[in-house]
Amino acid sequence: MEPIIEVRNLTKVFLSRGRKITAVNDISFDVFKGEIFGMIGPNGAGKSTTFSMLTTLIKPTNGSIKVAGFDVEKEDDRIRPIIGIVPQKLSLYPDLTGRENLELMGKLYDVPKKLMEERIDYYLRLVDLEAHADRFTGGFSGGMKQRLSVICAVLHDPEIIFWDEPTTGLDPQTRQAIWRLAKKFNGEGKTLIFTTHYMEEADNLCDRVAVMNLGKMVALDEPASLKEKSGSANLEEAFIHLTGEEVRD
Amino acid sequence: MTIMTELKHSWIITIKEFRQLSRKKALMIPLFLFPIIMIVFFGYGMGGTVKNAPILIINDDTGTASNSLVQEIGSYTPKYGGDPMFSVTYTKDMSQSEAKSKIDYGSYKAVLIIPQDYSERLAKNETTTLTLLTDSSDTTTSGIIINFMKQFLAKTGSVSLNIPDVYGDLEYLDFLTPAVIALTIFFGSVATTGSAIAGEIEDGTIIRILMTPVSKRSVILGKTVYQLILQLARAVILIFAAFAIMGFNMNGSWLLVALVLVIFTLGGVGLGIVMSAIAGDMESFFQLNMIVTLPSMFITGVFFPLSSVPDWMRYIAYLLPLTYANDAMRAVMIKGQGLDVIGTDLVVLSLFALITFTAGVHLFRREA
Ligand SMILES: Nc1ncnc2c1ncn2[C@@H]1O[C@H](COP(=O)(O)OP(=O)(O)OP(=O)(O)O)[C@@H](O)[C@H]1O
Ligand SMILES: [Mg+2]
To answer: What pTM was computed for the model?
Structure first.
């Protein structure tokens, strides 16, 4: 299988009030083209930090990342146009309408106007938001915001999609809608990388799952193999087995 | 990325900022109304009156026409108040410098000098000029007295008022307006830039913008262009309001005023970016803003001349950019001066803009 993301010895150390925090500690892995790649791990494991580095938002302290063959540090302007990101924070302008938020993204990705309008209408329908498109997102429910946030990231038809906890805090209906979107995008040949705290979600959706703990990648395999290796009935048990029972700060 | 693409991205950001502004109706009040209210408020001597303010009238008039004038001033009682406005002491033959020293000493709030030929000229239907000295360290009282005298003498017709050396030969409104504009533009650019970015950091929207192919440069440029348009518009509105409401007259070059304000706005935007980066969220930004910008309002001689403040305060004032903006604005707007006079001010303001912008671009971060 052809790798689309190659991560080698990736490390990120934050300096926070004079203290060193190693958020990501020497991890190496590949993500294959066209797969759904899940990342799970307790709070503070380093998932979002890894995402930030993969998406060129912050620079690694050490190690290297190639996305679609481009170096994240030297060729970030080649990477940005081909990736779409749904950040963990919902990040919509509350004083702009749904459509205005979408248009802002479309324009910043240089999507031609006509194509952009077509895609906006198409995706609004796809996530059932067309009736609310001209309302301010400040008044949206969590589920509506998440659906809008997801389609904000695909207007430029990216090859690789990053979702950081796309289903946290959402009702079952919205979660299923998000899953359908994941399958749809994947069916179009896009590579999807997402993080989650819901084990059954990782189990159902992912081709492969990476388990992170305290900045390390402690396992990376197909969900079935992970369960098998740890002798667990479900992924949740396998997860606890790999990352321990203690609650993180 | 080509320059055209970067400029296009900047413009998208500028439009976005204006669109957001149009949604924040409540922001219009501090942005446009407060400064106008401030000018009217202070310009009219805070709209209040004074009670029993000690003033000295030096009546050198050889005729009798001045008697009624003097009496009217002495017995004048404000519409709603019981006490007379002034407690008048009368004298003759005192030099202007001696009178001034009495004000400086604190004996009087103001001195009105009636010339020898007052009656004579009035009889001949010629204009006469009275001289009014006021206490420049007490701007409130001075403002009230000046306004009172102006209105009072306007009724008598052919008497004009000469008010030397109070605000460096300016009348209070003239003295006040340019500095209020500088202050307004400074506070406005720092607060709106900083709070907007702090808000965007807080809710993560700036991260989303910075995840797109748009460069950090374009984002900052877009926000800066927005601020330049917004702040210059505010300045124009303020100047017209001061003219329409208070009769303020602009004597200098609009182009130079724009130049001063553009450079100063750049500094304000830079400072706003730096402060939002340090604060990281709205609440901390506003706290920081209070500490950093508020003192400028009282120390830099917006409301009173720097010559009337203690030395230590003046030294601090010279460290604050608003001081130089005030000076340049007064020189251009009131005295009609050119680049030669405001050159130093512009250099200092440019330096301020350069430093804050460099720091701002450096601190404006991609990460959360
Ligand atoms: N900008 C930063 N400065 C300092 N420390 C940071 C910063 N960002 C993250 N960290 C720290 O790095 C560690 C990893 O954080 P990260 O957000 O990557 O975890 P996560 O796996 O995404 O957790 P969660 O499941 O809670 O989202 C945490 O200890 C966090 O406090
Ligand atoms: Mg996270």
So the answer is: 0.80
